């Protein structure tokens, strides 16, 4: 069975359809991107997956079972405001585990060994405002992956970064990807990012979003 399966999912705000008949799959170990212009319903799709909103129709299954309300199998990285500015980086990266009920000391033992891999060595006690934009996004991603959920949901993780930092982060994520057993669904409006990072891409049309094309990326990675 695919890990994630959406079957003719629809969603509207008031009378306006935002997602129309969205059917897609993500298989274990795949990196899948949804590429679409802004306003095309990408964030709404993540709201459905995380349970913040209910679909009006269609089915969402995970490992063959209908997604129920409690205990969703996703670790979600939001587009912005991922870090709390008043918490040190170490305490931001343990948040996801603490929300799951882990004690802070144990959560710290879990995240500390990952700081160097995420380029954050020595910044544990700093506040988010003292870090570069790229470092903040890596800290947010660290908090997301350390939750050890079966699937990552990444909402425009590099969208707010300048072009040079963004390219560096894309290369870094690609490198990380090849070293970990992750499954991910990423939404982006950056064509190069989608092609560079993904195994498959679904292209959304604007309002209401439909999947207008599914592309398997079996090309060599473009330079970025
Ligand atoms: P994207 O993430 O692709 O930019 P969104 O899912 O945020 O798209 O939004 C899709 C569409 O739904 C947009 O036209 C947006 O204006 C509309 N929309 C989003 N949230 C709401 C809401 N709470 N109420 C009404 N319309 C909304
Ligand atoms: P990126 O955002 O991709 O990390 P930068 O050029 O902003 O790229 O940072 C490169 C390196 O410079 C960082 O990995 C870090 O070691 C160091 N650095 C960046 N910002 C700061 C800062 N505010 N204080 C101390 N060191 C920093």
UniProtKB/TrEMBL annotation:
It holds the Pfam family ABC_tran. Transmembrane segments: none annotated. Residues 4-224 form the ABC transporter domain. CDD domains: ABC_NrtD_SsuB_transporters. GO terms for molecular function: ATP binding; ATP hydrolysis activity. Keywords: ATP-binding, Nucleotide-binding, Transport. Belongs to the ABC transporter superfamily. This is ABC-type nitrate/sulfonate/bicarbonate transport system ATPase subunit. It comes from Rhizobium metallidurans.
């Amino acid at each position: 069975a695919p890990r994630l399966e959406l079957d003719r999912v629809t969603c509207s705000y008031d009378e306006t359809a935002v997602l129309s008949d969205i059917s897609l799959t993500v298989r274990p170990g795949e990196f899948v991107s949804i590429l679409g212009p802004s306003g095309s319903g990408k964030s709404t799709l993540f709201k459905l997956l995380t349970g913040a909103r209910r679909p009006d129709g269609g089915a969402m299954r995970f490992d063959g079972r209908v997604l129920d309300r409690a205990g969703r199998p996703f670790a979600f990285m939001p587009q912005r405001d991922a870090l709390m500015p008043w918490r040190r980086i170490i305490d931001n990266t343990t948040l996801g585990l603490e929300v799951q009920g882990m004690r802070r000391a144990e959560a710290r033992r879990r995240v500390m060994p990952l700081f160097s891999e995420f380029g954050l060595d020595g910044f544990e006690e700093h506040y988010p405002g003292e870090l570069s934009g790229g470092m903040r996004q890596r800290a947010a991603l660290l908090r997301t992956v350390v939750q050890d959920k079966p699937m990552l949901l990444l909402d425009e993780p590099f969208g707010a970064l300048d072009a040079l930092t963004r390219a560096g982060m894309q290369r870094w994520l690609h490198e990380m990807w090849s070293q970990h057993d992750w499954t991910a669904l990423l939404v982006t409006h950056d064509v190069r990012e989608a092609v560079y990072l993904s195994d498959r891409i679904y292209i959304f049309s604007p309002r209401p979003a439909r999947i207008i094309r599914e592309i398997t990326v079996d090309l060599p990675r473009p330079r970025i």
